[in-house]
Amino acid sequence: MSANDVQMREAWGQGLVDLGAQYRNLVVLDGDLANSTRADMFHTAYPDRFFEMGIAEQNMLGVAAGLATTGYIPWISTFAAFLAKRALDQIRLVIAQPGLNVKMAGSYSGLLTSKTGKTHQSVEDIAVFRAMPHVVTIAPADAVELRSAMAAMMEDERPTYIRITRDAGPVVVPDGYEFEIGKAVLLRDGADIGIVSTGVQTSRALAAADLLEIAGVSASVLHVPTIKPIDVDAIVALADRTNGIVSAEDHSIIGGLGGAVAEVLAEHRPTRMRRIGIQDTFGESGPNDALLEKYGLTPNHIVEAVNDLLALTSVTTR
Fold it and tell me: Does the annotation count 284 as an active-site position?
């Protein structure tokens, strides 16, 4: 972690404050986690529009649905593990089915949750919300993209799930970047292999591309911040001009980005691919670097997958 790294949860809290000044109908509902998610920043700025719902996630989503029917735009503050499981029936029945304008922010997503372990890690939330009809599903790469995504979400009336990580990370999107729902962004252009990543795993995908360049392999990195609706054209175009695709995500390979990319390629452009992600298992408590190593999410693991894939083609490392 460098001095320039920014916590996504801090950016989310400040983003709510800034959007709250612009949208008087923006309200925040918290599940007794405001100091962790940083929704407390909104509470300080706009106490009359902040509602502490306690440890009652099902009720919180029902209240959010009611508020949405009266013209408010509710933002949900809780952990991804609780949002994607504990409140799922309410989300399905009273938010997704009627298509209500509720913004669901799942904080502490993925493996890196400050040693909270498998009970608080969420490695299947993308799959859950990607499969939920009507729900837009977003996983920003960094704090800058998060803020831009929040602004886009406020202008879109669909129910939306956005994935937020706990720890600080590098900014990887280019200067002047503007998030657009449903659009992927090519962060690095290379002809040999295509790496398709989402969320904070994109920073590790870029690091892998640097290692591959040293070895003489030219890798593209396509960042896919919107898993649903997914950018079919960008994925197919990448497959057309490279020798294979490696997907990378801090999430289960089942139902997440890797599954979505495989679906796109199977239907539109059959392509050899490998999936980097969590291999149908739960996580555990441990330091960040140890978890990334054990569960195969490091840049070196991406490089290994690329080399394995290229061994099946005419392209080899030099």
Answer: no
CA neighbor of 49 nearest in space, from 78, 80, 17: 17
Question: Are residues 192 and 161 located together in one domain of the fold?
Answer: no
As a residue count, the chain comes to 318
The CA–CA distances, whole Å, from 88 to 57, 161, 188, 200, 266 equal 9, 12, 37, 24, 30
Whether residue 205 sits in one domain with residue 231: yes
pLDDT in tens, 184-229: 999 999 999 999 999 999 999 999 999 999 999 999 999 999 999 9
pLDDT tens readout for residues 52-108: 999 999 999 999 999 999 999 999 999 999 999 999 999 999 999 999 999 999 999
Q: What values do phi and psi take at 274, rounded to 5?
A: -130, 150
Q: Considering the entire predicted model, what is its pTM?
A: 0.93
Structure tokens at 21: 């000044």
| Same domain (yes/no): 54, 149 | yes
Annotated catalytic residue: which of 52, 57, 249, 267?
57
Tell me which residue range forms the domain holding 230.
185-310
